[in-house]
Amino acid sequence: MKPDLLELAVVIPTFNERANVPKLVAALDVALAGRNWEAIFVDDNSPDGTADVARELGRVDSRVRVIQRIGRRGLSSACVEGMCATAAPIVAVIDGDMQHDETLLPKMLDALQADDALDVAIGSRFVDGGGLGEWDKDRVAKSALATRLSRRVLKADLSDPMSGFFMIRAAVVREMVPILSAIGFKILLDIMTASPRPLKFLELPYVFRTRELGESKLDHVVALEYLIALYDRMFGKIVPVRFAMFGAIGALGVGVHMGVLGVIALIGGDNTVSTYFNRSQAVAAIVAMTFNFFLNNALTYREQRLKTPRALLTGWISFCLVCAVGLIGNVGIAGFLHDYRAVGVATSALIGIIVGAVWNFVLSSRFVWGRY
Questions:
Q1: Do the beta carbons of residue 293 and residue 315 sit within 8 Å?
Q2: What is the C-alpha separation between 29 and 182, in angstroms, rounded?
């Protein structure tokens, strides 16, 4: 390797890691001394100014680059953008919170440069010499469960498929970009399961560090994203994951609708619902659509979620109008099939529900969340 050729790009997805940026660059400078490398911070428009701190470093150190993403969120997709934005033949992914051991990077690079058949070198917490550091029992149990679930879709016998610390040939990633789901926060699992051929890998031990600065990004939404990513890899080609989420939330909305009717009956008696059936249905429908709108905004369309009061109000009105038309289409198509095509009640109703769901999903995606 000629000393003037770029050997390695270190991709660092960040969100609110302002304090850790200079520390990580300094650590990489020590760990990769004598190697030709660059660091690419892919920041999801952190409100704490993470991208600005990285840019200031980039002014005095040409090895530091920044991709500031506006209106896009997600660790996996950030990693994909960073890995596609370099001329380096080899790319590494490392967290920006200093919990991964950057001193392992030279060993990873040496392994890939010494063996042309090796595709990926992985930092593992579960091979001899590795460890979880100061994790509590609850987090260890959750990690073990996630690892077991991942093995249902994995094509390789990895000890640590949940690792977010690895190094891979850039050409391998670029070939797979069109088929990567880029959902959630486990890009390695996405790559290993998406590859049309088994990737040759090497696992190297490291001990997971305790975060010193900043706050952990692990929450219930991140856990949900992991399950969504697994679903997408297993069933996404049959039923797209976003439509599956939209439909599941719609099913919950039916429960909310019936629950509201039950509350009205409980408060005013059964005669209230019977006497004012249309009004009761309208109230229940509005509550259910409001429930569906906000849950879809938080989960199904998390990356495009509406935030300002005006955007939320406009989006809610648009969503209710879309769903109202979808309901009319649902009832109309079901009635037509039953009355004029002699289709059974259950089949007619099911077709009507599917048509209404597809209508609501397509138009909501385009006119409620797509416009923002």
A1: yes
A2: 29
